[in-house]
Write a structure and sequence with these properties.
single chain; mainly beta; Immunoglobulin-like; 3 domains; six-stranded mixed beta sheet; five-stranded mixed beta sheet; 5 helices
Length: 456
Amino acid sequence: MRRLTIFLTLLLAAGAIFCVHAESLSGTVTYADGSPAGGAVVYALDGRKLFTVNNNIVMVGESVPRALTDRDGRFAFDGDIAGAICLLVQDMQDVVAVVELDGVNQPLVITMESPARGEVRVYRGSSPSPKENLTLVRNTPVSYLRFVYTGKSNADGVLRLPALSPGDYTVTTWEEVPQVGCCFRSVVTRSKQVSLPSNTITTVELGGTDLPQVSGTVASTEGEPLHGVWVRLLPKGGDSLDPNAIVHSAVTERDGSYSVYDVPPGNYEVRCFRRLALNDGGRTLESISELTVASANDEVKFDVAIDLAPFMPLEPGQPAPDITGTTLDGRPFALANQKGKYVVIHFYAGWCKPCVDTIDSFDRLTPELGNTSEVVVLGISLDESEAEARDFAQQKGLAHPVIYAGSWSVNPIRKGYRVVNVPTTVIVGPDGMVSQIDLHGNVLLDYLRKRLASAF
């Protein structure tokens, strides 16, 4: 078999990739000056899964074949590794090289380029922004390889970059933001495409532009400042759930003040969220308003006043708001017609995992109580459409009636019952008053058993 020596200058920034096929692999790893790269690790990747270099740590399992270069930079794999389609090389100084294997014979001579270095500076307005979450992801053309570096900016708003694989990167800042009715999710607050060349020190700046600043206060309608509120500006008409969308945001200070920097002109939805510690639960404050940022404004003042009453939970002893509607199977339902019975109303959505995990328990509720006619179970779906609500009910085979009266943002039943999280359960007593809220599983079952027993 003809032997061909290939000298590979792997400038990852230019995306240069050369390919080799062989049943066994051997070769030499050198630096750009021709000196051998002793002690480098050569990984043979098979392309069946995503491999990550995370903060310069190669995230591969023990099953991945690897070889160590000797003092002369030579390496050889033991046995047949014909399934390998890529070589990933890393030395003790975190210099990295990549070779795809496709139809060229060995031995290989791999020349490793010097790494990229530098720092990221983050600004809010003209001031350095400390404690920012930063992620750099290399835009590598190899689909099954991912180069990632994460960290936080220091007190001066700076993240020092170690030796990184040269190339084009996407640099982002991100925050964990509470979601309505659910948990937290990461949102991107800034994003920039940068090039980190080999053997070069690069400074990347995020923020600090001449774009307008939006500032103001968030308070209750009674004038009480609300601190710890996440204020988010989302382009009007955009997808608020798009994980790649840029979210301009800030958190209110103790006096309710906030400032959002570097906001491009346009029309925005201003969304405010805050966790509320009520009734031992994690209820969420929600407010949505509209804002236009004009290009001529250096600073935009925007105050938000929020009525807190709708976010306070219903309490036992209060009248239960009326419910009338048609169930998904076409039958009319009126809460007023259920007097003399306990009505278990549970609010859920198919996009809520805890709801999916617990919804079957509501079908089991009346059988476990002895199929009593004294208890009625009613589901209120908060899915995005009636079609989604119907598909979910059919998929789960729900036996209890379900009413769909609109999605989360418009559902009048959710608003009337002051539901700000799912799953939420409200028990209405035989007298039409709220009997208890947020009971689930065996706790709910025991509560109803005791109530039914005391009625006889």
